[in-house]
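User: I'm curious whether this sequence folds into something compact or stays loose and floppy. Could you predict its structure so I can see for myself?
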Amino acid sequence: MSHVHLPDGVVPAIWWAAGYLISLIVVFAVLKRLNMEKVRGKIPEMAMMAAVMLITMSVPLGFIPFHMNFAALAGMLMGPGLGFVVVFVVNFILALLGHGGITVMGLNTLIIGVEALVGGAAFRLLRGKFGSVPSAIISTAVALLLSTALMILFLSSIGVVDIQSGGGILHGGYHAEDGVDGHEAEKPHRHDTEYIFGGVALAGWAAVMAVLFLGIILESVVTALVVSFFMKVRPDIINPVPDKDR
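Assistant: Here's the prediction. I'll summarize afterward.
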């Protein structure tokens, strides 16, 4: 759900360098800890998950300025660690396609990767007590709220959005100029934070909260439906790769 749509040259070097460093450290730590023989067996599933994320992140829903990314779902299906690796690969491809600058790839990996880490970990923690579908809904909602909060705090810290009024928060402060898919030309221009809901024009934080509410409900429900489907036909998919010592 959360994604920083900033072209190169907007984010200070200290921020994007730290984003790259931390994201690479996390990827290295994940791959170092997991059983690589089992990871190799998961590569086809990881590739399919990355393809699904690329499609959903590139398709605007139309009725709300929001697109699903299924990072939390990746954490549930692949495990939190491999889910983060999938997010890294997806952001690398998106950066090459101009969906956000190359320099913000690391930051986007961290922001969206939180959804995979939190969503996957929370799902495994709650599944035994609440069941798969309720756990998927709760885990996705918590993961999306946390990643959105991190995105807003980051954009506010570099002065791209006004956290008091909520201005510029929708679409990550800046977004591509309108094109065929809405992501063709990453030229910086600020969007007014406005949203028409039920015939009522909302602005500022009211618009942000309306979009956030609808987006979280939508992605949480769709994620739960996908998890429910896999639990019926391929429950073996929803198993994390074991550590090396297992």
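Summary: The helical segments are 13-33, 36-57, 71-78, 80-96, 105-130, 132-157, 205-233. The chain has one domain: 13-236.
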